[in-house]
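User: I'm writing a short report section on ligand binding and want a predicted complex to refer to. Could you take this sequence and iron/sulfur cluster and write out the structure as tokens? A short remark afterwards would be nice.
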Amino acid sequence: MSNDSHSPAGAAVNPLGQLDLLDGPDVTVHQGRCVRVRNRNASCTACVDACTTGAIAFEDGAIKVTPSLCIGCGTCATACPTCALESHNPDDDALFDTCLAAMRANDGHVTFACQVELDRAFGHCDETKVAHVTCLGRVEESLLVELAAAGAKDVSLVQEVCDRCRHSSGRDCACEVAESASSILSAWGVDMPIELVDSLPESVVAEGVYGTPDETEAPRGDAGRAAGVAGEAPSDGDSGAADAREPRRRERFEKVGRDGTLPQFVPTRRGRLLSTLRDLGEAPSEPVASRLWGEVVIDPECCGSCRMCAVFCPTGALRRFSDPQTHTMGVEHVPGRCVACGTCEAICPHGSVTLLREVYPSDLYDDHAERFEMRPPQVELGRPDTIVNKMRTVLTASKFVSQA
Ligand code: SF4
Ligand code: SF4
Ligand code: SF4
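Assistant: Sure. The structure tokens for the complex follow:
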């Protein structure tokens, strides 16, 4: 496949969908991690729902990408359960460093504000005390938990301009992240309030200068175009951010394993989150509800023993087992690897899988696994629609097989 064009014509011939058209300096696309690329029956549309500009859309049952609309806010990367999309504007390490510097400058308080808010408050706010993001949707749980571990007293996400921003879906994502990170931290006994606030906190307002901000002041730089506040929305043909894109080398797909299982991975953010939580203290005994982890239950009554859930699970949270000693087989679920992508639930041909959104924190560690034993798959020889019988019908009708 060539990566020669961002044009619709180039995209139309891509059998894997258009997601890779998004790949550029702001967002890296790992196509092989997208559950929709891995299995066309997967139902995830998290990036579509979160995208602040409509750069990622869902049409005719497939993901469609308009790269010129992307403002590099990273909200899609926050929403993607498998980290198939990775933000570089800035990347996670750089954003953490920015937050640490802002936190230290402001006595342990962390304030996030988007570029439009900073532009609006230009001259009235001490920007050294603020962590700048293109959109609040860039903030995700592992960053917040790492800030808690670094001693942050509280986190404020300034939503002052969101109501008037055409990309306000980033705030919805930030709300969900704040709620999910708060419930994780409180389960671990960490007191670090995370709030969406309506104005810049007093502690970051430059003394004696910040008053009534000038609403008519034009945003600086790209921010006005990007955020659509007090400015023109980028048109489909606006190539502002897209022009700067350099085509990247298309990611090579790893080979399918000998057992037919697709390549698996654990997203870096998830690994970092678990290790930071471990540093924060002992895992609590009460279950935690968050968008990040899941607990899988398989109904043995309707399970067909095909183990397709383990074939397509992106992280290896579901894995096959066969135990010759006990003569048992089935799958086991490892909550610490589960990213709650819902693929197993969506693709199970028998509707046997249920994904629960509450997990026991102690189950997230030490490769804890829950086993689901299965009956060995049965070949129903009498049924005319089985592969065996269909092949027999084809072959016996064939001139290459003796009819005697
Ligand atoms: S970076 Fe922002 S604008 Fe670009 S595709 Fe992701 S959510 Fe949409
Ligand atoms: S959110 Fe991630 S896994 Fe889901 S469709 Fe988008 S890229 Fe694929
Ligand atoms: S177990 Fe299911 S929900 Fe969890 S990562 Fe695997 S496919 Fe996704």
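A remark for your report: The longest strand covers residues 109-114. The chain has three domains: 8-87, 92-237, 282-374.
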